[in-house]
Amino acid sequence: MMLNPTTLFPSLLFLLLFTRFYSHSPRKTLPKTPTFDDAVSTFHRMLHLHPPPSIVSLNKLLSSIMKTKHYPTVVSLCSHLDSKGTPKPSLVTLSIFINSLTHLGQMGLAFSVMAKIVKRGFGVDPFTLTTLMKGLCLKGRTFEALNLYDHAVSKGFSFDEVCYGTLINGLCKMGKTRDAIELLRKMEKGGVRPNLIMYNMVVDGLCKEGLVTEACGLCSEMVGKGICIDVFTYNSLIHGFCGAGQFQGAVRLLNEMVMKEDVRPDVYTFNILVDALCKLGMVAEARNVFGLMIKRGLEPDVVSCNALMNGWCLRGCMSEAKEVFDRMVERGKLPNVISYSTLINGYCKVKMVDEALRLLTEMHQRNLVPDTVTYNCLLDGLSKSGRVLYEWDLVEAMRASGQAPDLITYNVLLDDYLKRECLDKALALFQHIVDTGISPNIRTYNILIDGLCKGGRMKAAKEIFQLLSVKGCRPNIRTYNIMINGLRREGLLDEAEALLLEMVDDGFPPNAVTFDPLVRALLEK
Question: Closest by alpha carbon to 316, among 338, 345, 289, 341?
Fold first, then answer.
């Protein structure tokens, strides 16, 4: 439901009520100055000329500076010009001012400049309103942009495909694809024909939401209107089919692309397929797709290689993964942080921690900064191999490199403490997690409750379990199984049976892990 536009920009919209539609002559393409520094120094020099230069000359300089994306400089120069008052800023000047402010996300100031346009008697044009809408969308305030659009339309403004494309893009990025489709229909009724880019935005949004069938329907509509599907459309659909687990649909689309002369699969197309196959454990098939990419004259990039390496790592085939890595380097492709993190995680999973640590050293030699994911993989590997001393050295290295520990980091450390029965240290670490403003998830609570149960602290475990609903963290089947097993271990069978009933009421059917300790306890009785 749309918000009331008058609650968003009351002063501006009040002024707009009395503003007539204004259309000025099209803006001319302005010549570029040699360099950014030249343009800025020329601007300052011209401001001190007597008589002052024409505002047209200054606008040309401001426009050329804005094209270099030095938006803070443009804002500073526009502010200086506006305060000086001579020459008087024109509508073009103030439009450049607004454009730069929206790129910087300073929407409050952008709307204050808009108010100046109205107060100085300039007519508000669709171009400036579109710029404001784009700024709002960039800040994630798409519904406010839609309110501005609705208000402007009600005052007689008409907008082009640039405005509609901006709003549709904003809605799709928010996951509001159905709203984007509604705007697409409204646009058509207003006589503005949707183009390929707009359709691609909506198709991509539908695919990301898992609505592949609807996306295919929209593609059929495109074709019916004479809009040819391009490689971006196909890539979105292929990604959607892979994400929905409908791999045959993705292959069918790839074959369709191969048969066409005007649409050719690109590296991104093949990367989607390689990644999907690897995640399904079909690494041999992924390798064949990789080979097909090369056969078609496409050069695999670092993303292609990372996906294939990950496939081998998931299967524990580290020699094959390392071979992909080495061949990538031989072909002149520089491995990135993801490349190393993928291999490090793979080596840690097969307990080859020394090899993982060697790769960390190699990263530093290549001037690559390990991220939190890299460190978390290593921490988990070190913890599972019992290398406690190395583990805490790594935490210090992580902090020294500016990588803040996240919840995954703390979960690994918490699990390590509890496995070594350092219960007090574990409780202190848990309190530290809460104090730093990180919200523990159900995995955190499961690790803590399990450690307390096994450490004979059943009372503390029960207190934390009771707090879960207060903290808004719903227990899962593992939480119940941990508690039932803990109660059984303490001989509290009546409480264990009561919790079993609560577990069923909560929608979790008991499994073998649930019944095994209870059956054993009853047999022992």
Answer: 345
If 0-12 CB within 10 Å is exposed, 13-18 middle and 19+ buried, where does residue 483 land?
Answer: buried
pLDDT at res. 388: 67
d(CA 351, CA 360): 15
Provide the residue range defining the domain that includes 518: 449-524
Using CA atoms, how far apart are residues 440 and 434, in angstroms rounded to an integer? 7
* Per-residue model confidence (pLDDT) at position 390: 63
Q: State both tokens at 250.
A: 């993705």
pLDDT in tens, 405-447: 899 999 998 998 888 888 998 999 999 999 989 999 999 999 9
User: Is the bond leading into 26 cis (omega within 30 degrees of zero)?
Assistant: no
Give the whole-angstrom CA distance, residue 137 versus residue 102: 10
Judge contact between 363 and 335, C-beta under 8 A.
no
Q: Which two tokens stand for residue 371?
A: 């991220």
* Residue-level pLDDT at 63: 93
Decide if 290 is inside a domain: no
- Residue 95 located in a structural domain: yes
424 close to 392: Cβ distance less than 8 angstroms: no
Contact of 500 with 484, CB cutoff 8 Å: yes
Residue 32 has pLDDT above 60, yes or no: no
Evaluate whether 153 touches 186 at the Cβ level (below 8 Å): no
CB of 101 closer than 8 Å to CB of 75? yes
Alpha-carbon span 411 to 448, nearest angstrom: 9
Q: What is the pLDDT of residues 351-398, one digit of tens each?
A: 999 999 999 999 999 999 999 999 999 988 888 887 765 667 777 888
Q: Is residue 473 part of a domain?
A: yes
Give the pLDDT band (50/70/90) at residue 511.
Answer: confident
Domains contained in the chain, number: 2
